[in-house]
Amino acid sequence: MEYMLKISTVNDVEVFKACVEWWHNFSNDLYYSTRVVQPGLQLVAALRSPGTSRKDSFAPICSDLRRVMISRMAKPEEVLIVEDENGEIVRETSKDTDTIALYRTMKEILVYLTHLDSEDTDRIMLKKLASQMDRTEWSWHNLNTLCWAVGSISGAMTEAQEKKFLVIVIKELLQLCEIVKGKDNKAVVASNIMYVVGQYPRFLRAHWKFLKTVVNKQFEFMLETHPGVQDMACDTFMKIAQKCRKKFVAMQQGENKPFIDEIILGLPGIIEKLEPHQIHSFYESCGCILAEPTNWDNCSQQVLKLFKLPNETWQDIIYKASVGPEVFQDREVRKKLVNILKTNTRVAKSLGVPYYVQLKWMFPEMLNVYVTFSKALSEMVKTMGPVMTRSADARSMRAVKKEVLRLLEAFYAHDDGSNKEVTMQTLIEPMTEPILGDYYNSVPETRDAEVLSLFAQAIKFSKGLPVGAIRLIFKSLFACTLEMIKANFEDFPEARLNFFKLLRAINQYNFNEFFNLDDNPAAAEAEFKLIINAIVWAFKHTERNVAETGLMLLIELLENVDKSAFVTYFYTICFRLVLNDILSVLTDTLHRPGFKYQAQVLMHLLSVVAAGRVTEPMWNPDNPEEVANSGNPPNNRQFVVYHMETLLTTAFPNLTRTQVQAVVRNMFESLGNTKIFKGHLRDFLIQTKEFGSGDNSDLFDEERKAELERKQREEQERLKSTPGLVAPLANDENMAES
After folding, report:
1. Containing H/E element for 89?
2. What is the largest CA-CA distance in the chain?
3. pLDDT tops 80 at residue 254
4. pLDDT tops 90 at residue 87
5. Alpha-carbon distance 75 to 91, whole Å?
6. Nearest to 650 by CA among 573, 580, 699
7. Which candidate, 249, 124, 147, places its Cα nearest to that of 197?
8. Cβ contacts of 532-539, under 8 Å, gap ≥ 24
9. What stretches of 352-466 show up as alpha helix (H) in DSSP?
10. What local confidence, expressed as pLDDT, does residue 683 receive?
11. 8 Å CB contact between 610 and 671
12. Beta-bridge partners for 723
């Protein structure tokens, strides 16, 4: 053991990693050997008589191991400030996955060691901190590893011990930040303060004054322009806002207003040196705080006050545009509009329903801005041709339009529907015609895929739109988008994915409208066949996410058909088309990843036939040639059996008719068991020349994912069984209320 400790101090990364793995097994085994189950309780750390002597005998080794782990602690991924090869403090530009994995293993070791003797861990860490305070062991490396170790054991001590320990740690770190000189030194101390406080929400929730002091310190760090400090301050504020939001909105003892009101009042000074993306993060954190349900009675006025600064800028731009529309030609103005809209989008996501008051205020002018830029783009294309859509001006105009669409979508996605009728009347109905009309009349290069996802979300939010709205959506979006994406599998990737998401939303909430897209029955049927052809095109796509979206849409459509009055109609006109194309992709090696859903569709189709759900013939009995080519079937089941046998025998001449008949028979016989059905399908595919060689692992992707999920669940259970191995949950507000 002593030799292992000495080897663990060798300055070689690979040697140290090997030692860490060994110590992980050792600490895990030692810790679990001291645990017993008490009747009616969860596992607790307790000593058994045989385990006591073992624990005590290893106590000196464990104490030395704590020192080694603390002094060599790996950097956690939350820390953004690092020392580069020139010895300068810089912002991390990329994540080191090896270091993150090493940190997680070392964290587990320290958590186990803390459970075995928390007082010794406490003593060692505080002694090392004292050496930083008196500067006897001061260095960036020593302070970093110590603070990373302190953050790693969150939840491993009892609440009382954690309180005593953290009071000292946070006080001394705050004091150290005042003592050290030089921007680099202050940046290092700042990053460590932010990391430590972000790991202990239980402590912050239980100690209001510390929480307020720490948050105000984050605001100071937001004014520090050293690379990485502002980003980390915004990230830490976000963590604290998510985990302690109730404390911000409650009236605390000794205060004359809730803390969030103070923050909103001082907001201009807090964010004055932040970059746009950092301002977006700050506003999102404030939205998260205001979303606290106990605060909703006061929320409307707070939201408007929160947006006072961006709203003033917005109003100023709108006023200038009303005097002279040429103001929108200024790229800086367009950039300001994009940033204001992005800020609103972030708050809409974190705040949800209470954000409505701000969106309602912005909406009329926001829609006007959208229409103005739509007209400007159309005029640009009309005058100078589609090539101008690639110009910087066109891109910045489209950026404004896209952000308008994203903001509306974000609100609908995070609104719980409690004021659905009001939202429908004030937002969804007024936006429908202008946005759909712009999309329909634009050239393909300026059509925004966000329009498709926006209306998909609007349908989900409303749980189904009126038939007139669905018809308008279909006529405005369907044919023109399909024309854009069907030419090849490469152009307009976002549009093709969002197009099928829109169809899925209609299928889920407005299914009957698929059969009622026109008052003329013949036109309605033609429109429906176009939808089926589009779905077939989707699952034939070589892009996996598009193909899977198409297959899932088809499965959901078939399920809805089976519950509707359209069963006979649908299967009579569509069964053979869908069956043929599913068999086509199923036997195509390019579509191996979709095997799970392909098999599900095939099983569903055959089950419908086997159950006799369709009474009308799936062939034309009045056509003698078709009857003869179908084997003169007495019923739909026999027709499908003969059809599949003929199709597969023709497609795979290396297989005999007898082999194919056995495959089809086995499929029908195993319709009640998904696992056996898929097994027969796999056996058949591997018999073919196409699947006889190459990587067929995708055919077993479902089983592989299920096994991976099982292992992940087991790992989560293992981590949850030991306090400290899993970070405190963001919504666990009842651990330390005071």
Report:
1. strand 89-91
2. 100
3. yes
4. no
5. 13
6. 580
7. 147
8. 532/574, 532/577, 532/578, 534/478, 534/482, 534/499, 534/500, 534/503, 535/500, 535/503, 536/577, 536/578, 536/581, 537/486, 538/496, 538/500, 539/581, 539/582, 539/585, 539/591, 539/594, 539/597, 539/598
9. 356-384, 392-414, 420-423, 429-441, 449-462
10. 86
11. yes
12. none
Residue 613: both structure tokens together: 């759900």
First-last CA distance in the chain:
45
Whether the CB-CB separation of 299 and 253 falls below 8 Å is answered with no
Tokens of 144: 């970093």
Strand pairing category for 35-37 and 43-45: antiparallel
- pLDDT (tens digit per residue) in 156-212: 999 999 999 999 999 999 999 999 998 899 999 999 999 999 999 999 999 999 999
CA–CA separation, 249 and 263 (whole Å): 11
What pLDDT band is residue 366 in, cutting at 50, 70 and 90?
very high
Q: Under 8 Å CB-to-CB from 436, ≥6 apart: which residues?
A: 451, 455, 472, 473, 476, 477
By the 10 Å C-beta count (0-12 exposed, 13-18 middle, 19+ buried), 592 is classed as buried
Query: What tokens appear for 50 in the block?
Result: 């045989």
Let me know: does 585 contact 540? Beta carbons within 8 Å: yes
Nearest of 109, 110, 82, 108 to residue 96 by alpha carbon: 82
For the chain, the residue count is: 738
Q: Which pLDDT belongs to residue 709?
A: 87
> How far apart (Å, rounded) are the C-alpha atoms in residues 141 and 146?
8
Q: Contact, 44 vs 77, CB < 8 A?
A: no
Structure tokens, 698: 């995708």
pLDDT of residue 730: 39
Tell me how far apart the alpha carbons of residues 592 and 502 are, in angstroms, rounded to a whole number.
25
Is the CA virtual torsion 11, 12, 15, 19 positive or negative? positive
pLDDT in tens, 134-151: 989 999 999 999 999 999
Structure tokens at 614: 């369709």
Who contacts 720 (Cβ-Cβ below 8 Å, separation ≥6)?
A: 726
Please tell me the distance from the alpha carbon of residue 222 to that of residue 199, in angstroms, as a whole number. 19
The tokens describing 418, both together, are 């409690």
Highest mean pLDDT among 357-361, 613-617, 661-665, 678-682: 357-361
Distances, alpha carbon 241 to alpha carbons 260, 355, 424, 548, in Å: 10, 17, 31, 37
SS3 call for 82: strand
> Do the Cβ atoms of 202 and 155 come closer than 8 Å?
yes
- DSSP symbols for 478-535: HHHHHHHHSS-SSS-HHHHHHHHHHHHHHHHH-GGGGG-SSSSHHHHHHHHHHHHHHH
Give the pLDDT band (50/70/90) at residue 55: confident
**Three-class secondary structure assignment of 251-296:** CCCCCCCCHHHHHHHCHHHHHCCCCHHHHHHHHHHHHHHHCCHHHH
Contact 91, 228 (CB under 8 A): yes
CA 210 to CA 197: how far, in whole Å? 10
Q: Which of 634, 640, 649, 569 has the alpha carbon at shortest distance from 602?
A: 640
- Tokens read off for 508: 């889920």
Cβ-based neighbour number of residue 587 at 10 Å = 19
Alpha carbon distance 735, 159 (integer Å): 10
Could you tell me which of 453, 410, 419 has the C-alpha nearest to residue 284?
Answer: 410
What the block records as the tokens of 130 is 């004292």
